[in-house]
Design goal:
0% strand, mainly alpha, 57 residues, 68% helix
Length: 57
């Protein structure tokens, strides 16, 4: 194994792992956004969301 091959493989593996992590975070974000949309459509609101007009706690 040459030094150049070792360096190239290290960069390649690091790039592959970084790409996998970025893809995982992006897909997980889409899934969480979909879950939030489903919850809000069913009437469940986030505590930080403004209260609808006419409803006070």
């Amino acid at each position: 194994m040459t030094h150049t091959f070792y360096i190239a493989m290290s960069y390649g593996i690091a790039a592959l792992i970084s790409l996998c992590l970025i893809t995982w975070v992006w897909l997980d974000g889409r899934a969480r956004a979909k879950e939030l949309a489903e919850l809000e459509a069913s009437g469940i609101r986030r505590r930080s969301a403004p209260k609808p007009e006419g409803k006070e706690a």
